[in-house]
Design brief:
single chain, alpha/beta, six-stranded parallel beta sheet, five-stranded mixed beta sheet, 10 helices, binds NADPH dihydro-nicotinamide-adenine-dinucleotide phosphate, binds oxaloacetate ion, L-aspartate dehydrogenase, NAD, oxidoreductase, Asp_DH
């Protein structure tokens, strides 16, 4: 049995905690941390085996630490886990991409940092293609306006999405600029950039679309070995419209992949 701890109990973290409590072969949830300790206690109170509610630094007691908190809380969860040489599953890929010195720290401590595919599709193909020449990687994301509300880039540039009548291209730039401007929205772009040709060369286009009922991500890759495009239309989570329901499922698949005898896909 590998021990697991979760930092953040929102749309992703609570789903994962519930799934682990129902039983995921080979893994046992021992601790959780969140911003509001009382809320966290109440959330896990009815569990079959309630995990301890601990401060974020104590999550590193577990062999596997799942980070599922806002980007601003990423380092507080990641650093102790990395220092203790743990396996860190990081949902806030954009935050990681902006603090890549953590990867060097992990190398020194023997920790591993794993970014699940999350709400995206096709990172296996992107990683494989990146062993050869890749000419371009583009991601186009389309979300209902409520899934983008409050992003720092929109506020800084005075872009209002209220009463939007048709789809609007709200951002075009590289993955680093996107992660800075939309920390709660473009973790998929960050994961794509880290899987492929890096944040400077990965192009991001972000649309607010009042007709969209799903979070739609299309990637287009031009590489020497292959040209491919893939689209995923994720159902927004009922708890947080910015986050797709695929994300906790992807983290579960990633977790199982750490130990399963037969593992399909890279
Ligand atoms: N890789 C991917 O494909 C995707 C990644 N994400 C990213 O994953 C992360 C989690 O997303 P999601 O579950 O939707 O987010 P939510 O906003 O639904 O939940 C975040 C949770 O973190 C808690 N929290 C807030 N501050 C802290 C803190 N300082 N320390 C510990 N916990 C804290 C919140 O507590 P409280 O409720 O008390 O505030 C809440 O329980 C985000 O960074 C998001 O952008 C999201 C979607 C897809
Ligand atoms: O869930 C999604 O569609 C993607 C998302 O929010 C992110 O990348 O942060």
């Amino acid at each position: 049995m590998k021990t697991v701890a979760i930092g953040g109990l929102g749309a992703i973290g609570l789903e994962l905690a519930r799934a682990l409590d129902r039983g995921v072969e080979g893994f046992r949830l021992i601790a959780v941390a969140s911003r509001d300790t009382e809320k966290a206690r109440a959330a896990v109170a009815g569990f079959r085996a309630p995990p301890r509610v601990v401060p974020v630094e104590a999550l590193a007691e577990a062999e596997i630490v799942i980070e599922a908190a806002p980007a601003a809380a990423f380092a507080a969860i990641a650093r102790p886990a990395i220092a203790a040489g743990r396996v860190l599953l990081a949902c806030s890929g954009g935050a990681l991409m902006r603090q890549m010195e953590l990867v060097e720290e992990a190398e020194a401590s023997g920790a591993r940092i794993i970014v699940p595919t999350g709400a995206l599709v096709g990172l296996d193909a992107v990683r494989a293609a990146a062993y050869g020449r890749v000419d371009s990687v583009v991601i186009e994301t389309r979300k209902p306006p409520r899934g983008l509300a409050g992003a720092p880039y929109l506020e800084r540039n005075g872009i209002s999405l209220d009463g939007l009548a048709e789809a609007k291209l709200v951002f075009q730039g590289n993955a680093l600029e996107a992660a800075e401007g939309f920390p709660a929205n473009v973790n998929v772009a960050a994961a794509l950039a880290m899987a492929g040709i890096g944040p400077q060369r990965t192009e991001v286009r972000l649309w607010a679309d009042p007709a969209a009922e799903r979070n739609i991500h299309t990637i287009r890759v031009e590489a020497e070995a292959a040209r491919f495009s893939m689209t995923i239309e994720g159902m927004p989570s009922p708890d947080n419209p910015r986050t797709g329901r695929m994300t906790p499922l992807s983290v579960l698949a990633c977790l199982r992949g750490l130990t399963e005898t037969l593992k399909i896909g890279s």
